[in-house]
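re: ur question from the group chat, yeah i did fold both. here u go
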Amino acid sequence: MADVSLLTKCFFEFLGTLVLVLLGDGVVASNVLKKSKGFNGGWVVITMAWGFAVMCGVFIAGPYSGAHLNPAVSIGLAIAGHFSWSYVPGYIIAQFLGGFVGALLVYVFYKDHFDATDDADSKLGVFCTMPAIMNRPRNLFCEIVGTFLLVFIIIQLAEECNCPAVGMGSLGAFPVTMLIMSIGMSLGGTTGYAINPVRDLPPRIAHALLPIKGKRDSGWNYSWVPVLGPIIGCILAAILHMAVLE
């Protein structure tokens, strides 16, 4: 929609990211918190639900903002020339706030189950990613590769789309859903596939601030990996697109 104001675009980026994190962190909570009916549902449930979480965010924000819902997508598209750099700061702020509020809602929703759970690592895992094996250089590499695939494929799909607002929403929700599921099932086992700084950092901050019973530290010694990795990955994806395919 060419006549949509930047404020409206940012509002829908906020709302779409909020829903993405609410449903995405929500499925993790359902799987790992005690006395939940979804307890121990498994990795396939988590990866599928995260794909559907992105799909719902795209349905909400797509017609108005292009549904980036991820700073890596906004930055990658801007580098590739598909998105105005003047919009990037507003989009990222809106995405950050959406991720934070979404995480707060997950805590309120599952408060009784947080209280019933003794495992502090599981409680942290509801909010943000931590690696299966702590090896920061390799963890960083994994996040770079996962985000590279996400952004590169989005850019390539967008090349065939004649939409005024280029983003995940302009591609249609279902290809993006399948893409997120594929990355999660194939490449998510090492780090939990953040591939999105605002899916990780704002909820991590929420974990640090919330009065969660029996919580551990918020993993700040690792927190830079799911932020820096996606940024590097999106830059590499945009550079490859420009160097080889334009």
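okk and heres the other one u asked abt
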Amino acid sequence: MPGKSKVMERKPLTWAEKTYLPQVIGGLGVTFKNLMRKKVTMEYPEVKPPIPDRYRGQPALVKDPDGREKCVSCQLCEFVCPPKAITIQPGSIPDESDDIHVEKAPEEFEIDMLRCIYCGLCEEVCPEEAIFLQDIYSLNGLSREELKFKKAKLYEVGGIREDSHFKWKKKKEAEQKGNAAH
């Protein structure tokens, strides 16, 4: 014999439950309790939340204290980038430049912020300490092209940062000592 359905009897509603007054009064109680509470809304962007110490934000290129490009177009950041957000076109440095000890510099450097996953691998792999993650967390633009940051924009965001190894100065000093010895 097929399953027989069982009918459940409901308890009849009381007069107060039929008017919904207990539910309305309970809801108003929650509302008035929250009206008296201290405000917790943050007035963004005037007031910004604190940024955690290990926050990984927007990647940017930095220059050394002498204003030179630190990036030498090794392309390690481009190769290690999981979403392939970084594109580098290497260029050469003119022979008459003071930075001739550097083999090459980026002719084009672009980071597509819409593809970037802010993983920090580009910063970790950079041997020249040329790319750093900034504490910027609010990016906006009116088109996709505005969020493809070119080299000039990346240097504007990154600014100048001290070297921890002053590699270029050491090479230049070694070259000058070598030339003075000859």
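fwiw on the second one: The mean pLDDT is 86. The first helix runs from residue 15 to 19. idk if thats what u expected
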